[in-house]
Amino acid sequence: MRQRRERWGAIALETQNIVLGDGKYVEERFAPSLSHPMTQLSDAQGPPPAVVPIVHDIASSIVLSQQRTVLYPHYCPRLGPWKDARPSSPFLSTRVDFSRKSTLNVARQLALSYSSDLLQSSQIGLLSSASDKRNSSYLIGSSEQEDVIKRSSSLVANLTGPVGQAFYDVHRSFRKEDRSGLHDHAMLYSPGVVVFRKDCDDDTLSESDPSSPSRKERDLVGGDFIPPYIVNVVSAVPVNAAMVRSNHRIEPGEESFFEDGIRASMKERMARVLRAFELNGDKVLVLGAFGCSFENQVETVASIWAELLDCGETVGDARQVARFKYSFEKVVFAVPGKLYEPFKKAYEMRILEEQLTSATLEN
Questions:
Q1: pLDDT tens digits, residue range 267-280?
Q2: Which of the ends of the chain has fewer CB neighbours closer than 10 A, N or C?
Q3: Alpha-helical runs (H) found in 115-235
Q4: Can you say whether residue 60 is alpha, beta or left, with left for phi > 0 and alpha for psi between -120 and 50 degrees?
Q5: 255 pLDDT above the threshold of 80
Q6: What is the mean pLDDT of residues 54-69?
Q7: 276 with 234: CB under 8 angstroms?
């Protein structure tokens, strides 16, 4: 594991140099493809004849993405009234899928399926579980979701730009006033983030040599250069439930009060995330077990997503339709590892629970 983290750190440093440098990288393909809009054959010599080096220049895409980055503050008139807003072009219903793959593996599959021009436009939205502090943990091999995205894409340019700095400034100011761990609702929308590396266990057909003896090792680490594609990223900071619980003396019988507070803050933030995607016209989303690495209960997170996207909720005797049920064409929950089963089960159980409640009220 230590060697893997060291390798991830080296990959992240190389990514940073590309993204904040000239925006060029060289992908090695087993067979050349000259149809990509930002691709050309490299003049460099050296690789074996079977491997063709392809130079990608993503500099202009990085600059454009950084310039179009938007900060949605805590008191935001565009996101705050999410309950009353309605989608401009509603779908018949949102299709919900679950995947054991990582966020970027799902995003790449969707990009290949939904986008004819991988660098010109994207309606794929991706939620990044962001840190409230500007940090360089991705450079030392962190495997947190945001750090994986940063070492595989141009997101670091958005986060280090002026709008990204304002995002961290807002959160720093909130931390000084409120040390509860609930964090600020401020979030960042980064359109057109360029992804140009494979994540671990990406089983998309590779154009690199499949017979390479190091192929299996590379698949465990990820990081291979790939043809670039773009996604639209919302960076939102989840509630740090572990900090909330540790910062307060919770007396017996008060547990539900604190858990309800955590849930209410998380639901408001998650709803604003969906509203940000909706406002910007994203049709296909990649979400996940948002905030579970900060000890938000997986059952809570899954049930909130279900209420917002699928089943709605019953308040008193009133049945409230899921606010975002008709806002998106498709949502994929990327939940790799041990959280997949409990997340999927909790999502489905919340829908069943609401159906039973609704049936009871009707009778």
A1: 999 999 999 999 99
A2: C
A3: 145-152, 155-160, 162-177, 215-221
A4: alpha
A5: no
A6: 97
A7: yes
Which residue in this structure is represented by tokens 């436009």?
Answer: 121
Report how far apart, in Å, the C-alpha atoms of 303 and of each of 93, 154, 316, 324 are.
18, 32, 18, 14
Going by C-beta distance under 8 Å and a sequence separation of 6 or more, which residues neighbour residue 356? none
DSSP line for 162-191: HHHHHHHHHHHHHHHH--SS-----EEEEE
pLDDT attached to residue 200: 86
| Residue 210: how many other CB atoms lie within 10 Å | 9
Query: Is the pLDDT reported for residue 204 higher than 80?
Result: no
> 1-28+51-201+221-362 falls under which CATH superfamily?
Leucine Aminopeptidase, subunit E, domain 1 (3.40.220.10)
CB contact at 8 A, 154 and 108: no
pLDDT of residue 51: 83
Q: State the pLDDT at residue 259.
A: 84
CA pair distance 328, 283, nearest whole angstrom: 5
Give the model's pLDDT for residue 242: 82
| Helix-, strand-, coil-residue percentages of the chain, each rounded to 5 | 40, 20, 40
CB 52 within 8 A of CB 41: yes
pLDDT beyond 60 at 19: yes
How far is 52 from 34, CA to CA, in rounded Å?
Answer: 11
Instruction: Give the largest CA-CA distance in the chain.
Output: 76
Q: Is the dihedral of CA 331, 332, 335, 340 positive or negative?
A: positive
Beta strands 284-287 and 330-334, pairing class: parallel
* Domain residue spans of the chain: 1-28+51-201+221-362
The model carries a pTM of 0.89
For tokens 């339709």, the residue is: 321
Whole-number pLDDT of residue 360: 78
Residue by residue, DSSP assigns 348-361 as HHHHHHHHHHHHHH
Residue among 279, 340, 338, 267 nearest 309 (CA): 267
